[in-house]
Prior knowledge:
The structure is a homodimer. By secondary structure, the first copy, chain A, is of the alpha/beta class. Chain A folds into three domains: 18-61, no CATH class; 75-171 and 304-330, Response regulator (Rossmann fold, 3-Layer(aba) Sandwich), CATH 3.40.50.2300; 173-300, Response regulator (Rossmann fold). Chain A has 13 helices and twelve strands. Chain A has helices at residues 18-25, 29-37, 44-57, 63-70, 89-101, 115-127, 141-149, 173-186, 200-215, 235-244, 257-269, 287-291, 303-318; strands at residues 75-80, 105-110, 132-135, 153-157, 167-170, 192-197, 222-226, 251-254, 279-281, 298-300, 327-329, 333-335. A six-stranded parallel beta sheet of chain A has the order 2-1-3-4-5-11, with helices on both faces. Chain A has a four-stranded parallel beta sheet with strand order 7-6-8-9, with helices on both faces. Chain A has a two-stranded antiparallel ribbon with strand order 10-12. In chain A, α1 (18-25) crosses α3. Chain A is elongated, with a radius of gyration of 26 Å. Chain A starts with 17 loop residues before the first helix and ends in a 5-residue tail after the last strand. Chains A and B meet through α4, α5, β2, α6 and α7 of A and α4, α5, β2, α6 and α7 of B. The first copy, chain A, binds a DNA duplex through α2 and α4.
Amino acid sequence: MNHATxxxxxxxxxxxxxxxVASRAGVSTATVSRFVNNPSVVAAATAERIRDAIAxxxxxxxxxxxxxxxxxxxxxxxxxxxxxxSIFNDTIQAMVEELSAAGTxxxxxxxxxxxxxxxxLIRAALSRRVDAIIFTGPVTPQVEQMVRRSxxxxxxxxxxxxxxxxIAVGFSHEAAGSAVARFVISRGYRRPHLVTAxxxxxxxxxxxxxxxxxAEGSGPFTESSVEVPSRFGHARxxxxxIRRLPEMPDVVVCGSDHLxxxxxxxxxxxxxxxxxxxxxxxxxxxxxAGEMRPxxxxxxxxxxxxxxxxxxxxxxKADKSTPPERWIDVGFRLIARESA
Amino acid sequence: MNHATxxxxxxxxxxxxxxxVASRAGVSTATVSRFVNNPSVVAAATAERIRDAIAxxxxxxxxxxxxxxxxxxxxxxxxxxxxxxSIFNDTIQAMVEELSAAGTxxxxxxxxxxxxxxxxLIRAALSRRVDAIIFTGPVTPQVEQMVRRSxxxxxxxxxxxxxxxxIAVGFSHEAAGSAVARFVISRGYRRPHLVTAxxxxxxxxxxxxxxxxxAEGSGPFTESSVEVPSRFGHARxxxxxIRRLPEMPDVVVCGSDHLxxxxxxxxxxxxxxxxxxxxxxxxxxxxxAGEMRPxxxxxxxxxxxxxxxxxxxxxxKADKSTPPERWIDVGFRLIARESA
DNA sequence: CTGAAAGCGCTTACAG
DNA sequence: CTGAAAGCGCTTACAG
Lengths: 340, 340
């Protein structure tokens, strides 16, 4: 327990409250509260006195009390599966930065792949009366029920589910998969090998890829699957599987840039040239995609835009203005680089 | 705004409170509160009735109110510079998981390298009356003052500063640097090239390295520096600098595994063999270190242990039991692999 | 532009 | 083991 050793006020140990500021400034607590939340509504001279009193006391508002009284917590929960090796990393980074800049506190929850952990985190978020929950996983009936009963805005990001509980900000994974297939075809590759993670979205991209591939009547393809989170290190096994194939693929389509990076490293270690002997496509356009040698062809998703749209939706809801649309499609962009 | 469409109770829109549960269970709110916070103190029969009432109403405690009344928020702030490409990633992952498992909510703040952002985040944390702040950056006088006046436990992790404000859980970066130097010497390398990030801890490791290196009278070395956060992509420039050196180094000592990975990729792309032509040492032992080809010699820091020690300190403080020691040294371990 | 006062939903001595 | 009641520190109609 730290004590205020250099308090220039009465040497009490408890934190200064609105009351302390109010009496020091010679105004009511209501006025101080107004000043703190919306400085422009108090007279300039009053504001001046309050500002001084706050500085003198070192007052820091108690948002537990404020949230209880106003039933606005100014807190948003961000729930993602993992922090490490995650394809969401850039999106989450942008999300947390933008939320903080907007004066919102971020509660971070790591769901892993466990449904019970997800439910605990949702419950914790609702206990804090968060203004919104930003969610990236599959929604269980339990979760749906809890969330529907609460006033928190439920924002599913990175994806566009058919029937979002609140709103969804993301893109069509199936369309992204098709786009990759068309790219692969346009470059003249004939024997793709798909590496698909076991998550539902990766499966949707696979569906999109396969649909577009077969629509062109483009012959057979092979595939492997990896556990989530898909990591660099999975590449070793994947590459071994590829080598055992009766016929080598000419392009490996990976579910993440880390995986793509791993496959490239393995291929080079085996003495192959990328893309001449074997091409590689990633997903997510993480920073390494543009920095690897060779640079990695990937699908860019604008994580910062997802973050901004989510935040705009939260704001609109707080303002009680136009109800947000249910789906916000931020699209994606295939970036062709050296690896394919 | 979602409404409870399938409420099996009176169809009011507001969330059920302790009062609702209490009257339904035929007990006082005090008893329900006790049950929620410490089930074992209420009689079994009473507990049963309360449990049913909670289930029937879908009650979720309001921790804003609870925290205000008890002045325990059960929330901990975790403040780190970045989420992406961060050397702390494994530690943070472990930290968040362990805190959540202990029923504590994690407030995440990204400080970047901005002092004003750091101060805003500390202020936000104190506004929420967090039980503890887990911090990884340099402490400004402003931050120190705010923190000293608050009852929150201030935990500096990843490092062992001389005079921690609260407690510190980490290891000696200088000792780690020396250990790397001794390793490099023991392997017979003669011309190291250091790549040091501009952060203070990286500088401490550099100091440790240089001290041990020169103590052995081991000749000259060269060096480069990189911006923080140090990333895979910095390697390209670093490698170009190395190639311009009058004499090639025989080992490159990097400030992070990502950087080491990048240097290896560049070296291989230039037709060099690692470690035969040029060896590489990383730092942090992130998952890629063991998965890269060649696998990367690195310094392991037990992030999960840092997390557990920090959490144990928070618990001890809450229990008002033995005051925690000021420094907890979790050490480090050099892991020799293929790259050096 | 400002104040008096009720109320937000809990916790916790105190008493029994 | 349980209850009545005060109090945590704010916000916000309402009135002026």
